User: Fold these one by one.
Assistant:
Number 1:
Amino acid sequence: MKAVRLVEVHHPLQLQEIPIPTIGDNDVLVRVRATGICHTDVHYREGSSPVGPLPKTPGHEVAGIVEQVGKQVTTVTMGERVCIHYVLSCGTCSYCIKGQEQFCAQGSMVGRYADGGYAQYVSVPASNVVHLPDEIPFEQGAILMCSSATAFHALRKAKLAGGETVAIFGIGGLGISAVQLAYAFGALDVYAVDINADKLQLAANYGAIPLNASTNDPVAEIRKRTQGQGVDVALEMIGLPLTMKQAVQSLAVMGRAVITGISNRPLEIDTYADLLGREAIVTGTSDHLLLELPPLLELARRGKLDLSEVVTRTIPLDADAINQAMDNLAQFHSDIRTVIVP
Ligand SMILES: [Zn+2]
Ligand SMILES: [Zn+2]
């Protein structure tokens, strides 16, 4: 089969002809129909995030059709439309038993430590596939598996309850899913904070109240619009110390801030005014859980989560096209979502 693989970091991916993966008794072979190109994949190519051993086939946002099932598999059928949950976990370690599979002691990841979807076929444990309803195109199924799933997990971490107010800092792929999912969770008002007018307009199209942080202080604006109270939940989806701080400062009494953006820089807050004085909670979030994917897919099937404006380009399984898409992500921090359709 054809696979576009990372052979050496700091070098373009290469098209290789490799054998179709063999499957074990509990695995399934999926014929790839769509794979999202994620910014994380660019980090692997640049060597700024660990990956390997090389060569490795990237691609952790995958949807396709089941082509073969292992002898012991009873939960998945041949020909079924599926999405792949990229977190590979053992199911038996202390983390897995507690439902914290993203911290599995033997954990791995499709498209990072195991071969992923920049290929015609991918083999995964049957327990890692979820049914993809007919109403959802493969391209959207693929990207639901990463940014949308992470947004869904972040809102569950925030324990968002019906009637609460939410502020979302950063309206990229995560943020636009978070806006829609927050309303699906029953949020009363969702404030969308960004500095890009197009992104703010897109958030407003989904019912958010846009706040342009390049012209107004978003914290003051949120306080003003909530009669001084602040929001119950703030999600930070950029990874900047400033926006993390603003998310915490926007909170109401008993508010919860969830940090989703990645940064290795310190978060400085006034612990008295911003934490103790409000009994606020600041928490991190990491990936998502298998159990979150079926309800997420059902929300997409029902149209509560609409990704039709998110997938903006499809390309074939071609090394040049894929490297070019990755270059665009790296150089322009483009939010254009490119999906490989083999
Ligand atoms: Zn991703
Ligand atoms: Zn485990």
Number 2:
Amino acid sequence: MSGGAREVLAVRYGNRTTTRAESFLNHHLYGEPDTEIQMDYYFWVVRDGARTTLVDTGFAPAAGDRRRRAWWSTPADALPTVGIDPASVDTIVVTHAHWDHTGNLHQFPQAQIIISQAEYDFWTSPMARRGQFVTHAEADEIAYLQRADVEGRLTLIKGQHTLDGGTELIEVGGHTPGQVIVSVPTATDTVVLASDAVHFYEEVERDRPFAIVADVPAMYRAYDLLAALAAQPGTSLVAGHDPVVRTRFAPHPANADVTDLTAAATKLP
Ligand SMILES: [Zn+2]
């Protein structure tokens, strides 16, 4: 498969209003006013002709409702709006096991699921049930990953891992113990999906750690790595929850909630 056929999409399926103080770790340290900000919820799609890889699967409708998040689609509903058959999804990368990234896995019962060993080990350990962590995962979704492991549908990776077609998974930790980022080469460009290694561009651009963090030095090191990757020619950085993604890249012609991360010509200057 040539890189020319590859599409990389961000699909916005929900949002919420939050505040800077809730979003940035120890916001009071910076001496700046607290204001409301918008947070978007996305999952990502890498399409290679007839094959589709999902990067995360968003949150489940019931979990979103319980946590009072606005949402309007799930992967199985959103993919056909841009001409992708959900049955073409053969691989799902789970960048980390937070609830807003592991919902809806059951929509793709044939897919292989890839997650870091560190992430899987953490969320299946007693530490994950302590108060600072348990609120960020859904127990039935962690159990789903365990069943997928028993069924031979789970691939556990360490450090760096390259998928067919050259997409690289890089474990960075920080936000969660085994958070991974995903670097996707295309014909003309490289698209780096930070997922929640960077929720908002401001984290990496102003060195502001996010409020939910398992390991602060690892989070800072992830910012350093992502800044270095983004400084390479032809490389785009895609933050995991930032509405600015939808202004830095162009909307998909068929669905305004889908952003085309691929075509360099569509980017704003
Ligand atoms: Zn998230």
